[in-house]
Specification:
By secondary structure, this protein is an alpha/beta fold. The protein has eight helices and twelve strands. Helix 6 crosses helix 8 and helix 7 packs across helix 8. The relative contact order is 0.10. It binds calcium ion.
């Protein structure tokens, strides 16, 4: 069965182009032009992914994402028209999985769509492969294993010494694999609301962590930097 994509875009020309290209690649597509219809369609259709424009009639994309986030775990790829929207997209309040800034090429859009769907599939497989009793014991990402019970990390079969804060950060990344996480969100959740510091703290710890878990820390593949101010753990 083809994967289903809901396209929410109020510009008819762009909506048609998106629909045409996604269908050409074998996806089932439903396209709507305002935020209220987006909610209705998402609830009815239960799509595998939503391409969501921000400036929309009725309800804007931020509002649509915020509401849907509470109801379903569907990946959301947001389309932004202005740089000042990116902060909100990346941030905690909206929780988009990825975004594209207009204008973008169809090739780029297709690549992002497929990457998101691949992540979701992998995540689903991982969850279904884990037996209930093992569920909270270890998290495995290739040669990197986090033992939750013993709070230790194994890299290439060797114990990897981490400072407590590095361990907490890695664990947070692991639990949010594939999600775009802003520095502010990471700081809040790993260091806590009352932490006195700024988001450079996150950058510093990410650098340390990369030196320990990346094959080449200057060209990271596990913890990647997201344009607009955040990080994403690829596994
Ligand atoms: Ca629009």
């Amino acid at each position: 069965m083809p994967e289903t994509i809901l396209v929410v875009e109020d510009e008819p020309a762009l909506r048609d182009t998106l629909t045409y290209n996604l269908k050409k690649d074998g996806f089932a597509v439903e396209a709507v032009g305002d935020g209220r219809l987006a909610l209705e369609s998402a609830r009815k259709l239960k799509p595998d992914l939503i391409v969501l424009d921000i400036m929309l009639p009725e309800l804007d994309g931020f509002e649509v994402a915020r509401i849907l986030r509470k109801e379903m775990t569907v990946p959301i790829l947001m389309l932004t028209a202005r740089d000042d929207e990116i902060d909100r997209v990346v941030g905690l309040e909206v929780g988009a999985d990825d975004y594209l800034t207009k204008p973008f090429s169809m090739r780029e859009l297709m690549a992002r769509v497929k990457a998101q769907l691949r992540r979701t599939r992998l995540l689903r497989e991982e969850l279904s492969n884990r037996t209930p009793e093992k569920k909270h014991e270890t998290l495995t990402f290739g040669n990197l294993v986090i033992n939750l019970t013993r709070q230790e990390v194994i890299l290439k079969d060797e114990p990897l010494p981490l400072k407590p804060q590095e361990y907490q950060l890695l664990l947070f990344f692991a639990e949010h694999r594939g999600q775009m996480l802003s520095r502010e969100f990471i700081l809040e959740r790993v260091w806590g609301w009352d932490y006195i510091g700024d988001s450079r703290t996150v950058d510093v710890h990410v650098r340390w962590l990369r030196q320990k878990i990346e094959e080449d820390s200057s060209n990271p593949t596990r913890i990647v930097t997201v344009r607009g101010g955040g990080y994403r753990f690829e596994g």
